From TrEMBL:
It is found in: Nucleus. Residues 219-231 have a biased composition (Polar residues). Keywords: Nucleus. Residues 247-260, 561-570 have a biased composition (Basic and acidic residues). It comes from the Eukaryota. The gene is TRP6. InterPro entries: Homeodomain-like_sf, Myb_dom, SANT/Myb. It comes from Quercus suber. This is Telomere repeat-binding protein 6. Residues 458-505 form the Myb-like domain. Residues 37-58, 203-265, 425-444, 550-570 are annotated as: Disordered.
Length: 570
DNA sequence: ATTAGGG
DNA sequence: CCCTAAT
């Protein structure tokens, strides 16, 4: 890395690792992607007709995204050109993927299904009716607006896409935690995608629970998994404007499942399960905003006016495009590879302690800064990886008015964030795939403090996973549940699960005020579907967790009368 | 390290 | 969510 004034700035260990990851990736996994891209051919041929509808929709999507994307957006995101040629087909598992993955969808039928069912007027209630027959959710009958709500609930973010097909697919994928959603009828039951008439495509859709936890989702992305092929491809495609986009997903999933099925030995690093989320991340609009707003997150007073977010394209002889970004590091522009710079592991406690108790002494901080800039080249391997972050944190610590806030509070708002690997805006976008330790927006408060830490709204999928987990392991075994159902969600500690369950319990036994017509629109992030609350209640009773009343009323009942059930006393 | 409960 | 206490 070369600094603006010409000095050489060594990359941190972390960054080096990242780059290595990337390179290794290119070597090992790129083929898969490329191959997938080819084998898609089969599928789209076979499902040509139904594919067409999808193409139309995705085309619309492309237009939409492109229109609302300013020039900067397209460039401002890391990308690599994936060599569209050079597939190496010597692995026969790949060949198989072409044939086994095929999920020939009966076209006329499915298409008809969609159009006819979606025509049916939704129930007159203002909210989407999730509580179809025990836990069954029929997306086909939801309006766009309702789909939007479900989408938000499912993925925890808004969407502007108005394409029903697309929404349904995404939601189905989310709810089912699978990408095997190639069907055109979207009914989810018990976390499984119900295909009307066809059982073929949804063999393994229910994910984590049925399959061996060790093999399945266990630790796919906890390390620096590069993972996001899907999004990378999409990025590229979006940027270049053409090509169909809908398939990277299905194909990727196809090969993933394949690999899982036939021996995990083949590929050490499987694509993250989380890529579903990442796909949505790409289409999410705040993506670009985060990038654009980022400059103001830099160190106050040291922000170099023009540097922060100007992406620079380097075109090495390889032909592969590597995007670097100009980063204001310590006031001087430093070009760094556009990879994640989030810390991987929590800082060692003693380090934090040192900084904590020397807020005013420049010594430590200065040293760190120097180190970060490579002035003092000798360093313990152990320390290297945290350089950048530490430097930053020191800067911030220095600015602290010296225990201005309540000790506990400060500990929570400052230390807490660091210990969690949040870097206060240094990470604008992490496309390297392991967004596990995500950037969590911290909202500055009027009185200077940064409040509202990392809040990750619980999505419907997560809640469903939690419920299912409790049903399998029982309430209280949260570490178990976490390992089984939340292995792919690195956030969400067992404590979080416990808390959420507590909340669910509360919610499930709380009466639903008949709707305050006023503000029932979107502000409240997704009222938990009755179907889920029902499950919660059942489980709660089975575990004698019931608050203090009703115990003989509704252990087992059909599914219909949910309202009567809890309408009673509380 | 995991749980439970309070804030 | 965060923290503390008790296992």
């Amino acid at each position: 890395m070369v600094e603006g004034d010409g000095r050489l700035v060594p990359a941190t260990d972390d960054e080096l690792m990242e780059v290595e990851d990337f390179l290794e990736d290119d070597k090992t996994e790129m083929h898969d992607v490329a191959d997938s891209g080819q084998t898609v051919g089969h599928i789209s041929d076979e499902g040509a007709s139904s594919e067409k509808t999808q193409l139309e929709s995705t085309e619309g999507l492309l237009k939409l995204e492109n229109s609302e994307a300013d020039a900067g957006k397209l460039n401002a995101r890391p990308e690599e050109i994936i060599p569209s040629s050079a597939p190496i087909l010597n692995d026969n598992d790949i060949n198989q993927s072409g044939t086994t993955v095929e999920c020939p969808k009966p076209l006329e039928k499915t298409i008809e299904n969609v159009s006819s069912t979606s025509a049916i007027p939704t129930s007159s209630s203002s909210k989407p009716d999730f509580s179809k027959l025990n836990g069954e959710i029929c997306l086909d009958k939801l309006s766009i607006r309702e789909l939007h709500e479900v989408f938000k609930a499912t993925f925890g973010r808004e969407t502007t896409v108005k394409d029903k097909q697309w929404l349904k697919r995404r939601i189905a994928m989310g709810l089912t935690n699978s990408c095997d959603v190639s069907t055109t009828t979207f009914t989810i039951k018990d976390n499984k995608l119900v295909t009307k008439g066809e059982e073929e495509c949804n063999k393994n859709v229910d994910g984590s629970f049925t399959q061996d936890p060790e093999v399945g989702a266990t630790d796919v992305n906890s390390k620096g998994s590069p993972a996001s092929h899907g999004s990378q491809m999409e990025d590229h495609q979006t940027a270049s404007g053409k090509k169909l986009r809908s398939h990277s997903l299905e194909l990727d999933s196809g090969s993933e499942h394949l690999h899982i099925e036939q021996g995990a030995a083949k590929r050490i690093r499987k694509p993250t399960r989380r890529y579903i989320e990442e796909l949505s991340e790409v289409e999410s609009k705040d993506y670009s905003q985060r990038l654009i707003t980022s400059p103001k997150n830099a160190v106050p007073g040291q922000t170099s006016p023009k540097s922060s977010v100007r992406p620079v394209r380097n075109v090495p002889s390889e032909g592969r495009i590597v995007v670097t970004r100009l980063d204001s590091l310590g006031g001087s522009g430093v070009q760094v590879p556009y990879v994640s710079r989030v810390r991987r592991s929590r800082p060692r406690k003693n380090v934090m302690a040192l900084m904590k108790f020397n807020p005013s002494s420049m010594g430590m901080a200065a040293k760190l800064v120097k180190k970060a800039l490579g002035v003092h080249n000798s360093q313990t391997d152990d320390n290297k990886r945290d350089k950048v972050l530490k430097k930053r944190s020191s800067a911030e610590q220095i600015q602290q008015p010296f225990f201005s806030e309540v000790e506990k509070d400060r500990q929570r708002s400052v230390m807490g964030r660091f210990e969690r690997g949040e870097n206060l805006g240094l990470t604008q976008a992490d496309s390297s795939g392991d967004n596990s330790d995500d950037n969590v927006v911290t909202v500055p408060t009027a009185k200077g403090g940064m409040r509202r830490k990392h809040h990750r709204a619980w999505t419907l999928v997560e809640v469903m996973k939690l419920v299912e987990g409790v049903s399998k392991c029982g309430a209280g075994r949260w570490s178990e549940i976490k390992r089984l159902a939340f292995s792919s969600y690195s956030y969400r500690t067992s404590v979080d699960l416990k808390d959420k369950w507590r909340n669910l319990l509360k919610a499930s036994f709380a009466q639903t005020p008949p709707d305050d017509g006023l503000n029932s629109r979107k502000p409240t992030s997704m009222p938990i579907p009755e179907s889920i609350l029902l499950q919660v209640r059942e489980l709660a009773e089975m575990n004698a967790q019931v608050p203090t009343s009703i115990s003989s009323t509704k252990p087992i009942m059909g599914s219909r009368n949910l309202h009567e059930t809890r309408s009673g006393y509380l």
